[in-house]
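[job 0412] stage=complex_fold ligand=magnesium ion status=START
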Amino acid sequence: MHLPAEVQSIITTLHQAGFEAYAVGGCVRDLLLHREPKDWDVTTKARPEEIQKLFPQHFYTNRFGTVTVLTASKHAALAQVEVTTYRIDGNYSDQRHPDEVRFSTTLEEDLARRDFTINAIALDENTVIDPFQGQADLEQGIIRAVGEASERFQEDALRMLRAIRLASQLDYTIAADTLQAIAAGAATIAAVSPERVRDEFLKIVMSDYPEKGFNLLQATGLLPLILPELAEGVGVKQNKHHIYTVFEHNIKSLQFAAQYNYSLSVRLAALLHDVGKPRTRRRRGNDYTFYAHEIVGARMAEKLLQRLRLPREVVQQVTHLVRHHMFYYDVGRVTEAGMRRLLHRVGRENFADLIKVRIAERKGSGVPKAEPYRLRHLQFMAEKVSRQAVTVAQLAVNGTDLIQELHLKPGPQIGGILNALLAEVLDNPVKNERSYLLQRARELITADPETLKALGEKARDEEETKRDETIRRKYHV
Ligand code: ATP
Ligand code: MG
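[job 0412] stage=complex_fold status=DONE, emitting structure tokens
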């Protein structure tokens, strides 16, 4: 097993100064699995002051005894190596941070404070130190707490999510006692900060086996505590065309999005696209309808993602994808004008992602009719009209033109005229030409507001917004 030169050189420097030092934790786990470690950690008997003296290029924030040593590496994962003094953690009375960090003089104690056996292996150039049989668990694909599982989760409730996250990344099984301890301790997750929950949640979503992760969240009782909106879909049957419950369908859609290596926003939209179904489900005959579930679901997704403190752009993107995931298309019937109107509604910049959500969602419904070729055709249509105007901003005239050329006063009339012009251009792109649009605008000056509104109908977003608001009020979301 070879450590990278940067890490080996740090260990050698510590050895030469008379201190024990080992690579430890996730990097050793990944190295043994032939996976690329995301970051490198070194554990050592040297105290923070001593580490700092040996490595002039470092920074130290005095938290948990970790000195970040800067290497000259061009690889992001190796540019900074965390060098930490052997520790024994005190109590975690807030389930977040150890109340105190006590340094230790033995590697054994430092490994014993770590979360899982596969994360408690130390390595130097010629020895593997593995007191908790982490290698055996790596071979069998098992996540097992170091020591008494329930105690370890009481110390730090986040470890419950770390266990599930690791199982999703590695496709591992959680050992029976460890799993039971998670189920028994689930309620303590409430004490963990939303940011720490978010980080693990995102790692599950971005893992290779997210469906496994969400099934584990559900089986352990964590799901309703951190993602209650998703939990609403557990056991909720859909109409006769669906073989899966709402929850199963949501997480299978995410699984396909992961399989296709889609982006974070697409994965989240796949996971959340039907989150509004339980609240909107109504009986009709022997079947169910889910009228407006995309509107209710978009709002629920927005709240969930905001609560988890996701970046605003991600929240907006995902909400938008969920809101528009029901878009209608039919290869034979979608005209170029229909295509432009669809792009107008969903936004050109979101269209490729929306198709990906549709692909994941079709695959995740378990019916053979995923038909990606039809969606590729739609993508082709979208590209075909891609240089044509689908927003007011892309018209050959703008508000300033109308004010200067037609001597209009700034006000709602300008927006009304531009919308009416856009509606014409969506129907026929040839009309997006300055002199034609100015002439047409001149004719529209005398139109009363109602007529203008009717002319602009196809290009208006306000109607849709108003309808959305009514529905959201009705469902209290
Ligand atoms: P990743 O692949 O995300 O880096 P990791 O297991 O390396 O996963 P880190 O946060 O980098 O996670 O932590 C490095 C090591 O520190 C872990 O492998 C584990 O030994 C220890 N560790 C991290 N978080 C905890 C925790 N909450 N409780 C106990 N030990 C922890
Ligand atoms: Mg790590």
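The chain has a mean pLDDT of 92.
[job 0412] exit 0
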